[in-house]
Design goal:
alpha/beta; about 40% helix; 17 helices
Length: about 400
Amino acid sequence: MSGPLHGIKVVDLTRVLAGPFCTMTLADLGAEIIKIEKPGSGDDSRAFGPHLKGESAYFMSINRGKKSLTLDLKSEQGREILLKLVEKADVLVENFKPGVMKKLGLDYDTLKQTNPRLIYCASSGFGQTGPYSSRPAYDLIIQGMGGLMSITGPDASQPTKVGSSIADIIAGVFSAIGILSALYSRNQTGRGQMVDIAMLDCMVAILENAVARYTGSGVDPVPIGNRHPSIAPFTSVKTADGYINIACGNDQLWAKLCEIIGHSELIAHQHFVSNQKRCEHMPELLPILDEAMRYHSSTYWLEKLEAGQVPAGPINSISKVLADPQVLARNMLVELTHPVAGLIKMPGSPVKLSETPAEINVPAPVLGQHTDEILAGLGYSDQQITEFRAKAII
């Protein structure tokens, strides 16, 4: 057994990010992932830069551990091949716009007749139901529609997206959770089911305190930069050579901070004596903190704050993150050797299991790398495979 999902077979019809992130997570945990790609071009993300020796670094970063089978699902024989895969599969994952799989005759209601134990996960922008169901969606669109951009950035005049494609990635994470939940349920009932994941739903689910603040006050939250709306000081503070983050989650930590920066008189100041007061007067407090800390470096203050047990941290560049000793100690930077691109580095798995750990030792496939192997495993002869290729079915 090489992972907790060893023996689980997944048919992967996803492309770009949300779906591939989900199936990569399953692959890290030991599932066999058969990625179905369009003959000739493959997953759209294979065209996304940067490229290493002709292979997309973007594609490689989210498709490790998978097998690639090229297949024309618009052809009758291509669909027949897919049905043979589904017969033996545990899971199918797709992120087409709702309705596409039904037109192909490959929707859940059809496939469950072939395999009643199948877990069918459909990830889309707006889900399988509702007035927006048929609309296309991308991460930027969902970050805006889902409210995240209305609370992100320096102020309300500059709508700002999160730096990573958080709407896609969160949808991928929730897809994996849904699949694992359905697999557990199948162990009890013997029946598969459909998992319907909408990027917009996922975005609403992670709005956290923004929803609580609005429903409690009736006032729309607005961007407040790096400050926290309910805790203070919980923000970025200037130093002599940059910024650091400081998070004082209670009055005891606030008192420690005041002593460390040499301003113990602030502890009982009428504007700062409680967390609520500090939140109300944060525009007044932040310049005081900036002034107090601007005479020493970030490193100096981080050492002082760590010694005083006040939560604080640097604002790292990506290069610093990837060199951080804690990140390295947790195996969050892994190296793989790709058959074309050579040595590549990418984030590791954050899921740490004591008995059946995640394993990352197989790079992303080149387009169609496993086509012959998979078809032979389904019982097709070399001659049939040659004929499929001649007809552009694979």
